[in-house]
Amino acid sequence: xxxxxxxxxxxxxxxxxxxDPSTAPQEALDIxxxxxxxxxxxxxxxxLTRGQPALRFGxxxxxxxxxxxxxxxxxxxxxxxxxxxxxxxxxxELVPTLAGPTPPxxxxxxxxxxxxxxxxxxxxxxxxxxxxxxTRALQEVEPPWVDSPAVDYIAAFPLSSAQPGIILAAVDxxxxxxxxxxxxxxxxxxxGEPASRVPMTIDGEFGLRLEYPSCYALHHIWTTVxxxxxxxxxxxxxxxxxxxADRAHFDQVVATxxxxxxxxxxxxSSDEPRS
Amino acid sequence: VIAATWSRPPEVxxxxxxxxxxxxxxxxxxxxxxxxxxxxxxxxxWRILRDSSLAEDALQNALVLAWRRLxxxxxxxxxxxxxxxILVHACYDESQRTKSWRTxxxxxxxxxxxxxxxxxxxxxxxxxxxxxxxxSIEQRAVFVLHHYLGLPLVxxxxxxxLPAGTARSRLHYATLALRDALVAAAEPMAREGRLA
Lengths: 275, 196
What we know:
heterodimer, A: alpha+beta, seven-stranded antiparallel β-sheet, two-stranded antiparallel sheet, 9 strands, B: mainly alpha, 0% strand, elongated
């Protein structure tokens, strides 16, 4: 859904925001000044200085040991009988990001297969990335918000503002619903008219790829496709300034996408707000 | 995007030296800092909480907490983002604290003739006020930081420690509520227009 209905809409909300008070009452400032006289600062914490090389070395060793142990715990003990077999994902699974360097944003490194427990599709994801799986079904024209329980979310840093991430969700649609109609009702209704709208193929099915340089201030590549009366969202969200690399990485992920071979499971819907 | 057509509030240049001195316990330096940032912080708190008493309390709590925690601020250049984060959490606390006992007063709309002489603006403001009060405090915070302070959504997310997508959805719901409010405000006038 578009967030504006025209210039008047913008100006009325802008006026409303700007007309509100913008000066702190002097009385409030006096109270703060009085309070600060008696409030002590907290200690800034203990810090090593240049004059303590032995302590600095010891501290570094302790930190290194903690990192190694944490990584060991996260990875689990290595299997000596062969490569470890990843367990199948379960709903609400949140795989923690491993300690170490910044995960790569593309598929240049190792990949791991991912099968959606709720929606049934599969794809390959960067092994370092984390996965949060959907716990309820998406409603027909509900936007696939990243924090919705109706989406699978695969991201480099899911618990921070860093990007990028991929949102996936699917919903049953009527047989006579066209891809263009459904795309307009979902992607265009959420982000407006895209900068580009081009056909593409996903696992042999005709799809649409919409690109938004800035939807809610984030770069979006929003792909829609219908397969067996089920419509899918595959949405890349990334920061601005890395669009070229984002496209390449997104294409790599989408190229591994496979529709479910059997009917996906269904889950009860919840009372999430809908637009 | 809405923010593109809006004017930002005047930016206050925070003196890095003052932050550094205050960080080391200089109360006078912090007093000057308070003088520099208090209007801006109060404006943000007021817009999130829509109440002058709550905004004053949030401002006071935020500044006192900032003073106590200032020695732990590692990068003085991040002072503004840091103190806004403290302020927003103070707003959350105020909202939560008052939720349990505060009676919601519903202002009944006054029957004013619809006209083009400013009455519609009053109607809009009333509707916007009412609608915004029904938006969650977390959604309001994102909306105000983005549209009033003019922070990019990614920065808002970073400031609040949120995934960017979460910030985006919060902004969406807040914007949707305000847009619906304006539609609601326009309906009575449209009806009058049809009857006339």
